[in-house]
Amino acid sequence: MGSEIYILVVEDEPDVLDAIVRDLADFEEIFPIEMAETAEVARKQVSSIYDDNNRIGLMVCDHILPGENGVEFLVDMHEREETFSSRKMLITGQAGHDDTIKALNKGGLRHYISKPWQPSELQEAARDLLTDYVIEHERNLLPYMSLLDSEKLSESIRLRGGVSDG
């Protein structure tokens, strides 16, 4: 593996943030998790991650945040070259129909989870989104086999014509 692939979680409620991170803890074995309580702090973390030549594979974002809301943040991230291909997930209990449509059409939203969620639902969505991300961006998929969707990874390796060293 080259640079690290991060998970960024943006949530302003400490208990909810802790629950999301706890539910995603198994992924931290390969994907470091960064946390932010506002879109402004999240932007600084995005810059820091990319300044260190790393990437963000998954953004998990609440809709209701202090200042700028989560949909606006995801739209901004989708419009940036470095984060365009990051997989984006909205996790909220309060996004209206129009906000959700905007996140889908302009924010590159790949998954929506309503609060409260089941840990297995969040884990399955993260596994699917990160699997798709590494298939698209990584040449060597073997390091991800034990954590992500091994069937999809194996199929991708087969279609590519074998295993690459990196």
3D architecture notes:
A five-stranded parallel β-sheet has the order 2-1-3-4-5, with helices on both faces. 44% of the residues lie in helices and 17% in strands. The protein has a domain at 5-118: Rossmann fold (3-Layer(aba) Sandwich). It contains six helices and five strands. With 166 residues, the protein is of the alpha/beta class. The longest helix is centred in the C-terminal third of the chain and has 19 residues, at 119-137.
Quickly describe the structure.
This protein is 44% helix and 17% strand. The protein has 166 residues and is an alpha/beta fold.
Considering DSSP H and I runs of 4 or more, what fraction of the residues is helical? 40-55%
Structural class: alpha/beta
Mean of residue pLDDT values? 91
Number of helices: 6
Shape field? globular
The percentage of residues in β strands lies in 15-25%
Q: Report the uncertain regions.
A: none
Instruction: Write down the CATH class of the domain at 5-118.
Output: Alpha Beta
Look at the structure and name the CATH superfamily of the domain at 5-118: Response regulator
CATH architecture of the domain at 5-118: 3-Layer(aba) Sandwich
Element-by-element helix/strand order: EHEHEHEHEHH
Spatial ordering of strands, largest sheet: 2-1-3-4-5
Main beta sheet, described? 5 strands, parallel
Q: What is the number of strand segments? A: 5
CATH topology of the domain at 5-118: Rossmann fold
Rounded to an integer in angstroms, the radius of gyration calculated over CA atoms is 15 Å
Distance between the termini: 7 Å
